[in-house]
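Quick note —
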Amino acid sequence: MQRYTAEYVYPLDGSQPLRNAFVEVDADGTVLRTGLCGAGEAVAPGALIPGFVNAHCHIELSNMHGLLSKGTGMAGFIDGINALRDTKTRAEKEADVRLWMDRLWQQGVSAMADISNSDLSFAAKAASPMYTRTFLEVFGIEPEDCEQVMQEVRALQEKAVACGLDAAPTPHACYTMSPALLSAASGDALQAGYLSFHSEESPQEEQMMLDGTGELADNRRRYGMTLPPPTGTSSLDYFIERLAQVRPAPYDAHILLVHEVCMTEAGVSAVKRVMHHPFIALCPLSNLYIHNQLPPVGMLRDCGIPLTVGTDSLSSNDDLNMVAELFCLQQHFPEIPLGEMLGWACRNGARFLGKEAVLGSLEAGKRPGLVRLSNLSEDGRLTAASTSTRVV
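Predicted structure written out below.
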């Protein structure tokens, strides 16, 4: 048995944070108990929390660290991805994936919902102690390509499963998929029980779906691509409509709506009508990197849909650092308690991945990992110097 102490312990089991407290774990990292330190017991600085769950990452894009300009908007970002995705060899890309997987683990990420467009990250994820669920994301705006794209992604799924990974197809976004492909990929995801979808990430996306205009629509036309049909409604409504082409609502799968920069109360109501287990992934630093806009976090806190936290990729972020994401949220929404945000970044992520029996909270019998937050303020808030380090 090993005993760790801290000025703050966040069990994230529904109880309040503990002051001057301890966490005891056995040899394999299973939590035995938490409690208050005794009189005179030395207490280490900082806070102890369960391991993070990075709810949205593209680890295979780690080779693009520092390559893309900031503030280009979604159209410029897509151009940058297309131009710079293959600036390194496969061996170099695989080395970058291993480097960042190890860094995430050391910083305390115990599980990750990761997006893959190829098999580039499969070996690294299979070798990592971190649990990952791999969402095999597909693109294809031309209707006649749907069958071929689905054949290719199902073959990729077989490779992932052969590596011991939990993996299944998932749709990317409304503006990169034909209606048929959006429904087909969603069908596979619903059958697997887990779906991750880039939803309402930018005003450019919304404008294109509303009436077929704007910078993103112009970008698609420049490449000679067919645009998705303008609907006069939000891209989220369109996504829900395409789900209905697969099977009637309600949906029991765990569905992660990533970004939701443009989500409205009407969108929240629409989601709750048809999805039994919806989640929202906040990736604030990526949103600021691409188009300098954040989701309506105040409204989302109150909407009843569980929030999670992700880092997105190194094509749209300076780092893959969960503490940096939380500090960004704290800076822009200072009214949110640290414990609430940690619940998003740990417990809710575990719930989305269906791993709450093991991960997400410091409850007896669980093995969530144990992470120390350092360099907190005098009142226990995050600072620009705050870091996370894996203890167990």
